[in-house]
């Protein structure tokens, strides 16, 4: 599903003396089936933007077009039922939203709620659980008896069971260990390609942005500062520093190497890229000098 | 010198669990050290931390803090020596203001008010949160909350500070603030710092790294010793620091880079000597 923001403003507590601007003049396009990342400091408006993607918030000005649905300041809540089914939101620490008695019931809750029979909902839930790697033996367990990593997978299965066309991920790997993080990100990439989903990822993990995102949106103080491919966004290290943005993990090392006279035609964003550019500048074990 | 922490043969299995969370764990920690306990989620590292100040009682084995055996009788005195900052910044506040919150532990321990006030002020100054003394804790950022939690621990003048994944829920700025605070606390030489983490860059700052998995201590050593064993770290669910990944990559490409672990600064120096344009 294509998503387009046209001149969107969002004001918190509009029409009150407490009014504060959350978003200003947002113009964005997320192409159907692509992997997008939104980066920016805490408080830059990332979460406010996310909440527009399934109309948890509706714009104070402008419009958001999500598939066929146009959301404007006049849109009424009851018009948004279909939209909310099509856009799955995985919030930070989604495991805190588990509530049912068993794993299967928890995951089947959304499809049931959206009108499927119990048998159909259970079938959809089982598919979603297999997709996130939860074994059948765990289906009858209490969600709270699972490990933290398993609980998070169950919560994500709950979102996938809605069979959404858009998957919105807000810091989905926060608090996970490196292997758990890697598994989770691989899982999202797999789901994205298998189901041809539009993914919108909010993260501080720049290595994930470099690895997965086709388009990066940089936010600052409620505005879009820049959009582009990872290579364009991360090419200008001084600009990133100026806007208090993190670099991919190679960034700091690259800077130190540049200060020592090493040359990089393009800022290497991953370890293999760094090695490819660095090795020719170093003396090899076998030399013919 | 009496070890600040000595743990002998600790074993613990949670109710409803078939596998032990800790199995025959023994270790000795000297005062003034910064120890990183690393391991993936569920490796037993947090269980160990909670056993050090008696939040969980061992089913077998012994814990000695500053030479004293941890028992039901000694636990209260020992908790004054050990402060813990937990993972979630939101679940550890009781006070209506930042200053009240920092004072809470001292109130519990019957510290007189006249002494409490300067100790709160000193602790807030130490974590750089003086300007927020009258603020509501709920309105602070994650990093600020963890600094306040740390001030609450410091105000009790502990000998040991345990940070149980205290940075894992923070954004990069918050993490940076807490880590630089830990570094400055180390410099005072007054504390033994135990950081429980799966952030390998944080572990790199420690004097000693203890690797845990399946409730057991797998190995321990200096960061250099541990990080040189990249394959083993990966087997136990962790990664190696970037400088080590690059060093390994260069070795494989036939570059005569140093044959041991280097941090980023050392690696850059080492590569400079190998620069082909010199």
From TrEMBL, chain A:
Domain of life: Bacteria
Keyword Oxidoreductase included in the entry's annotation: no
CDD domains per UniProt: ABC_cobalt_CbiO_domain1
GO MF annotations, alphabetized: ATP binding
Presence of keyword Nucleotide-binding: yes
Family annotation (SUPFAM superfamilies): P-loop containing nucleoside triphosphate hydrolases
Pfam families the UniProt entry points to: ABC_tran
Gene3D superfamilies reported for this sequence: P-loop containing nucleotide triphosphate hydrolases
Subunit composition and interactions: Forms a stable energy-coupling factor (ECF) transporter complex composed of 2 membrane-embedded substrate-binding proteins (S component), 2 ATP-binding proteins (A component) and 2 transmembrane proteins (T component).
Entry function: ATP-binding (A) component of a common energy-coupling factor (ECF) ABC-transporter complex.
Protein known as: Energy-coupling factor transporter ATP-binding protein EcfA2
Automatic annotation (TrEMBL), chain B:
Residue ranges occupied by any ABC transporter domain in the UniProt entry: 5-239
Keywords, comma-separated and alphabetical: ATP-binding, Cell membrane, Membrane, Nucleotide-binding, Translocase, Transport
Membrane-related topology note: Peripheral membrane protein
InterPro entries, alphabetized: AAA+_ATPase (IPR003593), ABC_transporter-like_ATP-bd (IPR003439), ABC_transporter-like_CS (IPR017871), ABC_transpr_CbiO/EcfA_su (IPR015856), ECF_ABC_transporter_ATP-bd (IPR050095), EcfA_1 (IPR030947), P-loop_NTPase (IPR027417)
Pfam family, one: ABC_tran
Localization: Cell membrane
GO molecular function: ATP binding
Annotated family: Belongs to the ABC transporter superfamily.
Protein name: Energy-coupling factor ABC transporter ATP-binding protein
Biological source species: Lapidilactobacillus gannanensis
């Amino acid at each position: 599903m294509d998503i387009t923001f046209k001149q969107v403003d969002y004001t918190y507590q509009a029409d009150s003396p407490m009014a504060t601007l959350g978003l200003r003049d947002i113009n964005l396009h997320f192409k159907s089936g692509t992997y997008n990342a939104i980066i920016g400091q805490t408080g830059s408006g990332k979460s406010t933007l996310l909440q527009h993607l399934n109309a948890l918030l509706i714009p104070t000005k402008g419009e958001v077009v999500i598939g066929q649905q146009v959301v404007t300041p006049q849109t009424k809540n009851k018009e948004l039922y279909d939209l909310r089914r099509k856009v799955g939101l995985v919030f930070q620490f989604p495991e805190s939203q588990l509530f049912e008695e068993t794993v299967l019931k928890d995951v089947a809750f959304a499809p049931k709620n959206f009108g499927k029979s119990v048998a159909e909902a259970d079938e959809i839930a089982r598919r979603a659980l297999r997709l996130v790697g939860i074994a059948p033996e765990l289906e009858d367990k209490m969600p709270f008896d699972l490990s933290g990593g398993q609980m998070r997978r169950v919560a994500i299965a709950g979102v996938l069971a809605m069979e959404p066309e858009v998957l919105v991920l807000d810091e989905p790997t926060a608090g996970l260990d490196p292997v758990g993080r890697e598994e989770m990100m691989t899982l999202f990439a797999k789901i994205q390609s298998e189901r041809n989903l539009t993914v919108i990822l909010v993260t501080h993990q720049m290595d994930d942005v470099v690895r997965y995102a086709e388009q990066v949106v940089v936010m600052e103080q409620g505005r879009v500062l820049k959009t582009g491919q990872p290579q364009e966004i991360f090419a200008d290290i001084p600009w990133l520093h100026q806007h208090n943005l993190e670099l991919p993990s190679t960034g700091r090392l690259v800077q130190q190497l540049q200060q020592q006279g090493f040359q990089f035609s393009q800022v290497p964003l991953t370890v293999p890229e760094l090695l490819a550019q660095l090795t020719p500048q170093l003396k090899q074990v076998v030399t013919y000098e | 010198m009496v070890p600040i922490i000595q743990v002998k043969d600790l074993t613990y299995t949670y109710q409803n669990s078939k596998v032990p969370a800790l199995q025959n764990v023994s270790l000795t920690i000297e005062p003034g050290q910064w120890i990183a306990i690393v391991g993936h989620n569920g490796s037993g590292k947090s269980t160990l931390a909670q056993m050090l100040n008696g939040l969980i009682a061992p089913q077998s084995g012994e814990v000695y803090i500053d030479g004293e055996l941890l028992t039901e009788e000694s636990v209260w005195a020992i908790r004054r020596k050990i402060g813990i900052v937990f993972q979630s910044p939101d679940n550890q506040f009781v006070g209506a203001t930042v200053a009240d919150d920092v004072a809470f532990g001292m109130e519990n321990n019957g510290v007189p008010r006249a002494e409490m006030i300067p100790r709160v002020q000193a602790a807030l100054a130490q974590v750089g949160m003086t300007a927020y003394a009258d603020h509501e804790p709920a309105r602070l950022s994650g990093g600020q909350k963890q600094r306040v939690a740390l001030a609450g621990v410091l105000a009790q003048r502990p000998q040991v500070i345990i940070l149980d994944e205290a940075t894992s829920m923070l954004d990069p700025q918050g993490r940076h603030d807490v880590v630089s605070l830990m570094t400055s606390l180390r410099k005072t030489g007054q504390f033994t710092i135990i950081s429980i983490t799966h952030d390998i860059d944080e572990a790199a700052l420690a004097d000693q790294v203890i690797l845990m998995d399946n409730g057991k201590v797998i190995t321990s050593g200096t960061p250099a010793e541990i990080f040189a064993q990249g394959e083993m770290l990966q087997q136990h669910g962790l990664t190696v620091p970037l400088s080590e990944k690059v060093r390994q990559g260069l070795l494989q490409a036939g570059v005569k880079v140093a044959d041991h672990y280097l941090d980023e600064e050392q690696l850059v120096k080492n590569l400079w000597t190998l620069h082909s344009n010199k």
